[in-house]
């Protein structure tokens, strides 16, 4: 009897570590505390506003608050940098956008790998970008503008919110395809670019849909958009691709986390934010900003960004913008 009891006691002792581990996993049901969402822009802008709407809705689905933290500056990469030191437990995530992908190719001091050093959670939306001119400009269509640029090399000046921005690279891609010579003028933001255009400093602008109110009021003319589909509020305006120029730019954005996140946690976050993205309040916001809904799960999002990164690397190299 004593021998059996001893064996039972030894067996029970051997099982203690395993038994202790089970409650630990059960207690770790995700999420059981607030989630920190980093927005790498100043508060109050379109990128901030859209993700605050998403966060409010996703929090209800997750059963925990999603606390937005703005980290503006450094060309929008402070969120990605913060993720390099964050635990991959799902409680620190960040907004993903094209600068996160592109800046390490423009700035050699940024050492993170945009594909390998992040976990892709969900692609959510994109941005409508287009070519705008003043209403008194002689060009009524984008082909007319390009024909003029070809016949008058070096004469046209055009603006964007900055060198290396998606708006800049979209137009440079067009210029390279058509063999055009013109002068790019970088400004500090979309509002500054559009003020410069209306004031006659530049001949046209390649910008995101901050031009929409000015186009609707007749103060600017929209020649074409870079997206795959026409903008909802401007159905009469063609896409660049429709005009026979094989360029389409949606500038997708979404959610990322630290490298090494548990796929089960990623799924919980992706499901909550995917559902939030389809809520009426968020869809209304997208319509007001001319932003398309471009939902894509994490693995597909990562694969798409890996392909995009290689394409952009070649373009930056041709433009002598690739960091060495």
Question: What does this protein look like?
Answer:
Helix 2 (46-62) links the parallel strand 1 (35-39) and strand 2. This protein folds into two domains: 35-126 and 252-318, 3-Layer(aba) Sandwich (D-Maltodextrin-Binding Protein, domain 2), CATH 3.40.190; 129-243, Periplasmic binding protein-like II (D-Maltodextrin-Binding Protein, domain 2). Strands 2-1-3-10-4-11 form a six-stranded mixed beta sheet, sandwiched between helices. A five-stranded mixed beta sheet has the order 7-6-8-5-9, with helices on both faces. The chain is of the alpha/beta class and 324 residues long. It has helices spanning 2-27, 46-62, 78-83, 98-106, 142-151, 166-178, 190-198, 212-216, 263-277, 280-288, 298-318, and strands spanning 35-39, 66-70, 92-96, 118-125, 129-133, 157-160, 183-186, 204-208, 221-225, 253-258, 293-297. Helix 2 (46-62) crosses helix 9 and helix 4 (98-106) runs parallel beside helix 11. The longest helix has 26 residues, at 2-27. It has eleven helices and eleven strands. Residues 1-27 have low confidence and may be disordered.
User: What would the average pLDDT be, to the nearest integer?
Assistant: 89
- Specify the CATH homologous superfamily of the largest domain: Bordetella uptake gene, domain 1
**Assigned CATH architecture of the largest domain:** 3-Layer(aba) Sandwich
Q: Residue share in helices?
A: 40-55%
Based on Cα principal axes, name the global outline. Answer: globular
Instruction: Give the strand tally.
Output: 11
Read across the widest sheet, the strand sequence of neighbours is 2-1-3-10-4-11
Q: pLDDT under 50 segments (min length 5)?
A: 1-27
Number of alpha- plus pi-helical segments: 11
Distance between the termini: 77 Å
Largest sheet: 6 strands, mixed
